[in-house]
Design brief:
- This protein is of the alpha/beta class and 262 residues long.
- It is built from 11 helices and 7 strands.
- Helix 4 (54-60) links the parallel strand 1 and strand 2 (65-69).
- The longest helix has 18 residues, at 226-243.
């Protein structure tokens, strides 16, 4: 894993499955962004890493106008189809680093479970530059809960410890940066002030089939040797069926980091 390159291609290759099984975001995330930014009725939002448009749809549903940037063409195609009915929303196929944007043109720079893929030597300066002075940067993730005490998770962890011990406790936010602290990084950039962090717990219940499909969208799992991955999935399916009655409830925490241009 340590030498494996993980980027948007990992997710673009499973775009349809990603769209089906990755959870959306708690309403509280968008309420907190709106309250912090004192947003107008129709704020101009730049979303970085649109994916299949899950968070985008939640934003446009609130009346926000969104320009989305997504490097994965398969992911972007699903997002465009999902958002086809919204005339004031667009999805551009590009990385944030490469795209040309007008200075001081957005009220919000948003990124949902994607900002950790942006080059920090470029991302913070560029985000601050394209934001209006009264704007908001809003970065959020659906985080794993590595140390959950939920007893229903015990059979799942037991399987991991036997079949793929390196995945028994997943990093909270991203597999390639186990100690990633977005609030600290945002603060250290020197480009933003008044930094705040919110955590919103929630959970999703999956059938065994849906749970395995979810795992197959994780970069950490997709880069397992195919035989080990198949063995892991077979063992997990058995544990869910026999020990958990056919369904598994996975805990999440939506982690939201907010800031204003310095």
């Amino acid at each position: 894993m340590g030498s494996t390159v993980i980027d948007w291609r990992t997710f673009d290759s499973v775009a349809a499955t990603y769209d089906e099984v990755r959870p959306g975001y708690p309403i509280a995330v968008f309420d907190a962004i709106s309250a912090y930014g004192q947003l107008s009725v129709r704020p101009d939002v730049l979303e970085i890493g649109v994916g299949t448009g899950q968070a985008t749809l939640q934003m446009v549903g609130r009346g926000w106008d969104v320009v989305g940037v997504e490097p994965g063409p398969e992911l972007a195609a699903i997002a465009r189809a999902r958002l086809a009915g919204f005339a004031r929303t667009s999805v551009l196929v590009s990385t944030f680093e490469a795209i040309e944007l007008t200075d001081s043109s957005f009220d919000v720079v948003a990124s949902a479970t994607a900002w950790h893929w942006v080059d920090p030597s470029v991302g913070y300066d560029k985000a601050a530059r394209v934001l209006r002075q009264t704007g908001t940067i809003a970065l959020w993730w659906n985080a794993h809960v590595p140390e959950t005490r939920d007893p229903h998770w015990v059979p799942i962890r037991r399987v991991y410890e036997r079949a793929a011990p390196e995945l028994a406790v997943l990093p909270r936010l991203t597999p390639d940066r186990p100690d990633y602290d977005p609030a600290a990084e945002l603060r250290a950039s020197g480009q933003f002030r008044d930094i705040r962090q919110h955590v919103f717990p929630f959970s999703v219940t999956y059938t065994a089939e849906a749970f395995l499909a979810l795992l197959d969208t994780y970069a950490s799992h997709r880069h397992l040797d195919s035989d080990r991955r198949r063995d892991l999935y077979d063992r997990l399916a058995e544990a869910v069926a026999i020990e958990l009655g056919g369904a598994i409830t996975k805990p999440y925490e939506a982690v939201l980091v907010l800031g204003r241009p310095a």
